[in-house]
Amino acid sequence: MTTTPIPQPSASADTDQVLADRCQSSGDYLAGLIAHGMLEAVSRPGKLPELLFPDGDPVLVRAVWEAALAVGYQAGKLSARPTWTPDALHRLRAALDTAGYKAMGRMAARSASIHPPRHPADTPAAEGLVRAGGHQ
Q: Is the pTM of this model over 0.70?
């Protein structure tokens, strides 16, 4: 009986994932800089909805903006001082999945897998795969 060997990930696949993770982190960093630039352009946060959605129904744009602002504020508080645990995030994922929000459930599961927040390339397994430097 001949057995088929199980393919093992190559070093280039490991490097690929590390670099892809670094790209995602860099994208998140750049998004913050863009947000800062938008705020500078309009001079105050209250004017941002009109900048982003000038052709939208102003009443609807304002309602969505106010809801999103509250969500963003809560997310910011959690990121500064996480009070959740991976178990809590797994419960959230299950609740979202049950409610039919599969994509949001995957996000909660991903957050649980990297709790506490850290960059995937900064793990011992990734040492030596990416040159030092860059933002954290």
A: no
